[in-house]
Amino acid sequence: MHLYWQQAVINVILLCLLTAPHEFAHAWVATRLGDDTPARQGRVTLNPLVHLDRIGTVVLPLITSLLGLGFIGWGKPVYTTTSKLRGGLNGLLLVALAGPISNIVMAILLGAAAMALQTASRPAFAFLVYGVRLSLYLAIFNLLPVPPLDGSKLLLAARIPQVIYVEIARFGFIVLLLLFQATNLALFLYQWRDWGTVTILKLFGG
């Protein structure tokens, strides 16, 4: 069995860096919508260590990348109190979408930096382009409607019973692993990631 050590290490390092703006976006939007829970828990910060989840940010992405099983990862969840959010469950959906949107913004910024360094440093250019690809992948991946991913909040916003959501959440990890193993989901995510990367680089003359 071939092990992708270099890819796995790069994935984990970049995930730790990209998780910070993702989780910060959740916390900032929740705060703007009237919920002080993230602020009280110290989550309205760009410090990567605050947002690191041992399983979701390190262990699982390391294993899946190492074995070539796609890439599964997330940061430490930002907790919100729905009753404090303006709009209730609709506000919760806005908080959830803020994370993937931040990944798209980061991809654009990394794309601009990559093109600026294209002739000055090929290694830096390659690293930044990979950062664009991973940031877009995280945006798309997190929109999947499977707990604990951000997209699962779509189910709550659609008013499915809380008890059903909780039951789905119990098997969220297993569902994700099965989807990556038994379907073409990983290929689908990669195709959209690559299309987005090309589009962003073209914006800056790539």
State the gist of this model.
The protein has 206 residues and is mainly α. It has helices spanning 5-32, 37-40, 54-66, 89-116, 122-142, 153-157, 162-170, 172-182, 185-203.
Walk me through the structure:
The chain is an all-alpha fold and 206 residues long. It has one domain. The protein starts with a helix and ends with a helix.
String of helices and strands: HHHHHHHHH
Estimated share of beta-strand residues: under 5%
Quote the distance from N terminus to C terminus.
36 Å
The radius of gyration computed from the alpha-carbon positions, rounded to a whole number of angstroms, is: 17 Å
Q: Outline, from the CA principal axes?
A: globular
Low-confidence stretches: none
How many strands in all?
Answer: 0
The helix-and-strand class reads: mainly alpha
Number of separate domains: 1
Largest β sheet strand count, sense and barrel closure: none
Please give a handful of descriptors for the protein shown.
206 residues; mainly alpha
Give the secondary structure arrangement, pairings included.
Blueprint: H1 5-32, H2 37-40, H3 54-66, H4 89-116, H5 122-142, H6 153-157, H7 162-170, H8 172-182, H9 185-203
